[in-house]
């Protein structure tokens, strides 16, 4: 009996069971006493046998901490089976927690489940779920793009088939002041925009619902056509001014006749809002495409996002240029608009203090203007021309006498503007560097242009010299 009770497996188990059985009925206490006594008798021999038999690691005795407190069953050895079951439960719990973590779409942190190099089942299964979830969310944004496009076409129709049709029919008498061509300025090229979206672009977007990979290529294909919005925005300030004069009379009468809820300015701003909205929707679609690891589609979408960043910026810039009043020259002849923004400007020759100026930097000219008037629901501020410098007749001094790092100076070299200079202060170092680098670049371009005109042969030789490869090592013959 002593040898049987001294087997290496049970010694740790009876000690646990005896403690549990102290709370049980008296009939079971005898079993506990016998078990306990047998285990005590076995202690001297247990040491020797433990050296021969392979025992589980000592830490496994702690597995009871994971078990619910209940009366143990002495007919089953719980050590091995319960440990595996509990390990499986812990693994399932870990997976559930990980799944909850990955549901946070706004988190920029990726989990280990998203590592494509992991090959275990624990990583590949969540990867599949995450990819499916990303594609589903992408389809939601794509549907929003198409649905809002349909509404946009409807809104444009209210203008073209509503206001323009009524004005052309003469159903509502047109004021004489609008008959001299101002009616054309009101709407700009909105008819061309409407027809393109209605007849072509909307249908192309709808195809992307079934073939999302077409979307990025679609915006790249129609990049030049989308520049019609730049033309529309350049005309927008003039349109706002004319509409504001008749918003409560002529255009209100047309609105009531058409039964529209929105006023004409609310409809004419739709193209401006739409060209800005494309970029936001494309960014969301790109985000979910990247999460789904569709690399080719993501690359096309990145190019589309860039296009829809450049076009709205150009449109917004030209809309501000369109608000410039009092400049005698032709804006379209001044080259590309490179920069524009609100800066502090001082003219030392007049002793004037720093004043806020809306500054426009073109390839051929820099224009200083003053913002006037208050922004209203129907119009924005206008810019009144104050002064300008021709790029080919000005110089840049990158540092001022007071050493302020945010300032730089532009000096006129025009004989008709002798002694004229402007100290310009930017709001930040980033803005200052951007303005200075752009001005420096166009001055260098102008200098190259002048050298090419004055000494074309020498200039061509210099260009040819720059294009030749560097001389290789000379070898003795």
TrEMBL record:
InterPro entries: DBL_dom_sf, DH_dom, GDS_CDC24_CS, PH-like_dom_sf, PH_domain, RhoGEF_Guanine_NuclExch_SF, SOS1_NGEF_PH
Gene3D superfamilies: Dbl homology (DH) domain (1.20.900.10), Pleckstrin-homology domain (PH domain)/Phosphotyrosine-binding domain (PTB) (2.30.29.30)
SUPFAM superfamilies recorded: DBL homology domain (DH-domain), PH domain-like
Domain of life: Eukaryota
Main location: cytoplasm
PROSITE patterns listed in its UniProt record: DH_1, DH_2, PH_DOMAIN
Ranges of compositional bias, category Polar residues: 26-40
Boundaries of every DH domain copy: 137-318
CDD domains membership: RhoGEF (cd00160)
Pfam families per record: RhoGEF (PF00621), SOS1_NGEF_PH (PF22697)
Transmembrane among keywords: no
Residue ranges constituting the PH domain according to the UniProt record: 336-444
GO cellular component: cytoplasm; extrinsic component of membrane
Name of the featured protein: Triple functional domain protein
Native organism: Rhipicephalus appendiculatus (Brown ear tick)
């Amino acid at each position: 009996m002593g040898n049987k009770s001294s087997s290496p497996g049970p010694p740790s188990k009876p000690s646990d069971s005896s403690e549990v059985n102290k709370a049980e009925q008296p009939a079971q206490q005898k079993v506990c006493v016998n078990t306990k006594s047998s285990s005590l008798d076995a202690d001297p021999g247990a040491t020797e046998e433990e050296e021969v038999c392979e025992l589980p690691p000592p830490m496994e005795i702690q597995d009871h901490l994971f078990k619910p407190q209940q009366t143990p069953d002495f007919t089953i050895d719980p050590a091995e089976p319960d440990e595996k079951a509990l390990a499986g439960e812990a693994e399932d719990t870990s997976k559930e927690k990980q799944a909850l973590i990955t549901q946070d779409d706004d988190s920029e942190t990726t989990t280990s489940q998203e590592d494509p190099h992991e090959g275990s089942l624990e990583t590949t299964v969540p990867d599949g779920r995450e990819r499916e979830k990303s594609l589903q969310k992408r389809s939601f944004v794509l549907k929003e793009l198409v649905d809002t496009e349909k509404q946009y076409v409807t809104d444009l129709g209210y203008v073209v088939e509503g206001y323009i049709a009524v004005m052309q029919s003469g159903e509502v008498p047109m004021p004489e002041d609008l008959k001299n061509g101002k009616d054309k300025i009101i709407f700009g090229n909105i008819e061309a925009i409407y027809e393109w979206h209605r007849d072509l672009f909307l249908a192309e977007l709808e195809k992307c619902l079934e073939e999302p990979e077409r979307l990025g290529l679609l915006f790249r294909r129609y990049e030049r056509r989308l520049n019609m919005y730049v033309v529309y925005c350049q005309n927008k300030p003039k349109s706002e001014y004319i509409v504001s004069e008749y918003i409560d009379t002529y255009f209100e009468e047309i609105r009531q006749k058409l039964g529209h809820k929105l006023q004409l300015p609310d409809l004419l701003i739709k193209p401006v809002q739409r060209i800005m909205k494309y970029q936001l929707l494309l960014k969301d679609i790109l985000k979910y495409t990247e999460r789904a690891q569709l690399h080719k589609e993501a690359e096309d979408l990145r190019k589309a996002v860039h296009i829809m960043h450049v076009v709205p910026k150009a449109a917004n810039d030209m809309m501000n240029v369109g608000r410039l009043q009092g400049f005698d020259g032709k804006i379209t002849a001044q080259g590309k608009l490179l920069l524009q923004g609100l800066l502090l400007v001082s003219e030392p020759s007049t002793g004037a203090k720093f004043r806020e100026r809306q500054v426009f930097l073109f390839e051929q000219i820099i224009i200083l203007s003053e913002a006037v008037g208050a922004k209203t629901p129907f119009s924005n501020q206008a810019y009144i021309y104050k002064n300008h410098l021709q790029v080919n007749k000005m110089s840049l001094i990158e540092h001022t006498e007071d050493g302020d790092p945010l300032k730089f100076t532009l000096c006129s070299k025009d004989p008709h503007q002798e002694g004229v200079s402007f100290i310009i202060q930017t709001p930040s170092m980033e803005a200052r560097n951007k303005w200075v680098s752009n001005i420096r670049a166009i001055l260098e371009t102008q200098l190259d242009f002048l050298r090419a005109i004055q000494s074309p042969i020498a200039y061509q030789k210099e260009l040819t010299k720059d294009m030749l490869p560097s001389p290789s090592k000379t070898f003795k013959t």
